[in-house]
Write a structure and sequence with these properties.
Blueprint: H1 2-16, H2 20-28, H3 31-41, H4 47-62, H5 68-74, H6 77-87, E1 96-98, E2 101-103, H7 111-127, H8 130-133, H9 139-160, H10 166-181, H11 184-191, H12 194-201, H13 208-222, E3 227-228, E4 234-235, H14 243-256, H15 266-274, H16 279-293, H17 296-303, H18 308-313, H19 323-338, H20 347-359, H21 369-372
Antiparallel strand pairs: 1-2, 3-4
Helix pairs in contact: 1-4, 4-7, 6-7, 6-9, 7-9, 7-10, 9-10, 10-11, 10-12, 10-13, 11-14, 13-16, 15-16, 16-19, 19-20
């Protein structure tokens, strides 16, 4: 029976991803209600079947292009409520007080998959403000409930996973960064919470892959990537943080990692990682520098740091060995020239940066024929 249910659920979800017309058919026929009832009523009877359904719904939330009716169903109140309860962010279960708030334990089997799915839904909210603000009656209360519930779920995850293995930390970074990027209110909650700040931004014991993920997640939070909608058009996320919040996040990176010898200098921290021998760390550092450089205030802070201008312009001494890395460094220069800080730069600085843009990312200074034959 379980196998048949999972196969039927898989077929329903595959069809619902084809467009709004198929999603409307699935809703009107009661197929989506069936999936919702499995989540709610089979939680204790067959947790493994529910886990399979969570994986299918995660696939549904990640399939692009995203359609309006599908995103509305995914972020509907009943679905979010059961996911928050699984992840330890519900308010109906008995909980215990931790750091001044009531925290429930996540489901030992389904808590992790539920939190991962909630992270995917937060990324949906970056594209559509109405998903989590809810235009239904009591919409503002609905939004506050989601913020509080997800905040509680993140604390529950940290509380119940004190060892924080690399796999658990990757899941935590994804969850916190997705939540923070979903709205300005969520970003403020994360930045004002020392526990979540540490869980997201700490690089102290991170391996190369984890360190790259942390830096890239900060870059994506400051400069959210564009998405393609159902019509094939590029869509800018509505929740792009203000300059003030973006710089607060950038500075928080140095505050959390103050013991690493960087003090309160976030630029020094990122530049140090930008010359790492690990390609993935360099690429994520370039992405973060580009995200900050797009902001006028951020470009000024970067250029005022000793060594940053030379890092961009001295190609012989700070040569990047990969194609992707050279193009990423080139994008930083373009971001600075396109930012509001351009008008405040000295003429010779602008000329040097324009020369780099004109030469292209793969420029190599030619060696004179006489020297080449010696």
């Amino acid at each position: 029976d379980t196998i048949c249910v999972v196969r039927c659920a898989s077929a329903i979800i595959d069809l619902s991803c084809l467009g709004d017309a198929m999603m409307e058919c699935a809703i009107s026929s009661g197929a989506m209600d069936m999936l919702q009832n499995i989540l709610i009523h089979d939680l204790e009877k067959d947790p493994l079947m529910v886990m399979s359904l969570l994986d299918l719904i995660e696939k549904m939330s990640n399939t692009l292009p995203m359609h309006a009716k599908r995103s509305k169903w995914l972020c509907s109140g009943p679905i979010l409520k059961v996911l928050l309860n699984m992840a330890g962010g519900g308010i109906e279960n008995d909980g215990e007080e931790m750091n001044g708030e009531i925290t429930t334990n996540p489901d030992p089997i389904l808590g992790g998959p539920a939190l991962r799915l909630l992270s995917c839904l937060c990324r949906l909210a970056q594209r559509d403000e109405s998903l989590f603000s809810s235009q239904e009656e009591g919409g503002s209360a609905h939004s506050r409930h989601l913020l509080v519930g997800f905040h509680r779920a993140l604390h529950s995850f940290i509380y119940c996973n004190p060892r924080n293995s690399e796999l658990e930390r990757l899941a935590l970074v994804d969850a916190i960064s997705s939540f923070a990027s979903s709205s300005p209110d969520a970003m403020t909650i994360v930045l004002d919470d020392p526990v979540l700040r540490e869980g997201w931004l700490s690089l102290s014991v991170a391996q190369s892959k984890l360190k790259a993920v942390v830096l890239q997640s900060v870059a994506n939070a400051i400069d959210p990537p564009k998405e393609v909608d159902a019509n094939g058009d590029c869509v800018l996320p509505w929740s792009v943080p203000s300059n003030q919040i973006a710089m607060k996040l950038f500075n928080a990176l140095s505050v959390v990692n103050e013991s690493g010898g960087f003090g309160d200098d976030a630029t020094k921290l990122v530049l140090t990682n930008a010359i790492s021998p690990f390609v993935e760390i360099r690429l994520s550092s370039y992405a973060l520098l580009k995200a900050i450089a797009k902001r006028g205030e951020g470009a000024q802070i970067l250029l005022s740091h000793a060594g940053f201008f030379e890092f961009l312009t001295q190609r012989e001494t700070s040569a990047e060995t990969t194609k992707e890395g050279r193009e990423a460094k080139h994008d930083i220069v373009i971001a600075i020239l396109n930012s509001d800080a351009r008008g405040l730069l000295a003429d010779d600085t602008v000329k040097k940066l324009e020369d780099i843009v004109r030469q292209g990312p793969h420029y190599v200074k030619a060696v004179p024929w006489e020297l080449a034959t010696e």
